[in-house]
Write a structure and sequence with these properties.
This protein has 498 residues and is of the alpha/beta class. 50% of the residues lie in helices and 12% in strands.
């Protein structure tokens, strides 16, 4: 190509100008040749920027997700959720702003992403054959079990053949609808309906109300919702360890996907994935069916006597009153004259030493106990190091309320010895039980503690707190909507609970 370019230029010159013995002309010739080659390279080798480069140039990572407790939601302190925490950390690593775009149902995610409105989807999506036609998936960062759900008392099927002819409803364009089609290949008589308007939480409510016999839910979703509908049960495990991953538009280059994979793998090794899972799903691992029914009953019969006290104490000490109420329930089941074998007493189960510290004369007095407990909890929160962020800070303070702040300090030391992060509850909750083992408690300043108790204590409060939030979330709605919601709750849980 260089010779051709040189030839074309030379043919345009007058014979007198082409002098191969002239050094000046040779240098001029070479300069033009270099310019021509460079121009050719620029004209023929330029390529559009990669997806990752586009994100970096734009300064934004656009992510589509869905409103769900297992993905993304707006809490009291702003955006939150397991998917939000992960993708926010990814955007921070890229050094770009995070732009969240939400859709109402899982059925809307694939077309939204395929249209190019977002760079990726972070919505708790499992990898299915139907989605692989339109999407590329990254490295899995979690897995779920796929359950067939029914209501206690309606007849538990022991195999798929026993659900034939019974009403089944699943979310449209989901992995659950794909599962139904897979089952139908072996059971041609199988019939079901697909709902494009409701999420899994809505379908679980329908099962609890008896409107349909079955639906399908992932283990993470069911683990949260079963606290609200304690009559729901797992009939069959349809799939075990279904992988969950971020999704990207098919046809795009792999640059953003590959960078996301690097982030997910490093997050698994560094403990971020474990921390996120514990933060949002740790309290769901143990479910007490009888205890949940009793809690909902006591919410209606016992809490009203003390609710205003919890609200006023929470406002006075900067603590969510619902959290204080959950803590009080864990301590005494909202009984003002509760007494333990160790001598702690009252709604907030204060020791005599704590009562003396708080200048409380009568631990059995509900107002004194609740305000004292709120003050003592706020004090524990203040003692937690500033390096501990919420919500871990709250869990640390709860554990300190139960076992004492000095044992929290000892457990943090154990975490450091083990190479963990002493500012994360997921690591501290593993170290606390070690305070009951001689090889560990002999090495720390404050010695032995029944360290497994504060871990169970915190998990129970977290579960009860979520139930209270759910039971009170509609209180500011218009009266007609509130009445309808209360009616739904009665129908869902059964009149005998209330």
């Amino acid at each position: 190509r260089a010779n051709q370019l040189r030839g074309r230029w030379s043919k345009k010159q007058e014979p007198a100008q082409v002098n191969r013995d002239s050094a000046g002309l040779r240098r001029f010739d070479l300069r033009l040749l270099s310019i021509a080659i460079l121009a050719g390279l620029i004209g023929t080798c330029s390529t559009p920027p990669s997806t990752l480069d586009q994100v970096l140039e734009l300064g934004e990572l656009r992510v589509v997700t869905r409103n769900s407790p297992t993905a993304y939601f707006v809490g009291e302190n702003g955006p939150t959720g397991p998917e939000y925490d992960l993708v926010r950390s990814f955007a921070d690593e890229l050094g770009v702003a995070l732009v969240i775009e939400t859709v109402d149902t899982v059925a809307e995610i694939t077309p939204h992403l395929a249209s190019g409105k977002a760079h990726m989807a972070a919505a708790g999506l499992s990898i299915t054959e139907s989605r692989l036609e339109y999407l590329d998936f990254g490295h899995p960062y979690n897995s779920v079990d796929m359950h067939l759900i029914y209501k206690l008392g309606t007849g538990k099927p022991r195999e798929v053949a026993e659900i034939l002819g019974r009403p089944i409803e699943v979310a449209a364009s989901s992995s659950h609808s794909d599962m139904m089609r897979t089952l139908a290949a072996s059971y041609p008589e199988l019939e079901w309906s697909e709902n494009a308007d409701d999420e899994v939480a809505d379908l679980l409510k329908k099962v609890a109300l008896g409107e349909v016999d079955f639906t399908i839910a992932d283990s993470t979703e069911f683990g949260i919702q079963r606290h609200f509908y304690p009559d729901l049960r797992v009939a069959l495990d349809l799939k075990i360890e279904d992988p969950i991953a971020w999704a990207f538009r098919k046809g795009d280059d792999q640059s953003l996907l590959e960078r996301a994979d690097e982030f997910i793998i490093s997050s698994g090794r560094g403990g971020l994935l474990a921390q996120v899972n514990d933060r949002y799903f740790g309290h769901t691992e143990k479910f007490d069916y009888v205890g949940t029914r009793a809690f909902i009953r006591h919410f209606e019969t016992r809490l009203p006597r003390y609710r205003q006290m919890f609200e006023e104490a929470g406002e006075a000490w900067g603590v969510d009153w619902r959290l204080l109420a959950a803590l009080g329930y864990q301590e005494s089941h909202w009984r003002s004259h509760a007494v333990s074998p160790t001598g702690v007493r009252g709604i907030m189960m204060l020791t005599q030493a704590t009562a003396d510290y708080l200048d409380i004369e009568d631990r059995m007095d509900p107002a004194s106990s609740i305000f004292g407990g709120a003050r003592f909890f706020a004090r524990q929160t203040e003692r937690i190091p500033d390096s501990v962020d919420d919500p871990d800070r709250t869990w640390f303070a709860m554990a300190a309320y139960n076992v004492g702040f000095n044992h929290i300090k000892d457990a943090r030391q154990i975490v450091e010895w083990q190479g963990g992060n002493p500012d994360k509850w997921v690591d501290l909750s593993k170290a606390l039980p070690l305070l009951a083992q001689q090889r560990w408690y002999t090495r720390v300043p404050y010695g032995y503690a029944r360290g497994w108790e504060p871990v169970l204590y915190v998990n129970n409060i977290r579960a009860d707190y979520n139930i209270i939030r759910w039971l009170t979330e509609n209180e500011e709605q218009p009266e007609e909507e509130k009445a309808e919601s209360e009616s739904d709750l009665v129908a869902a849980l059964g009149e005998e609970i209330l």
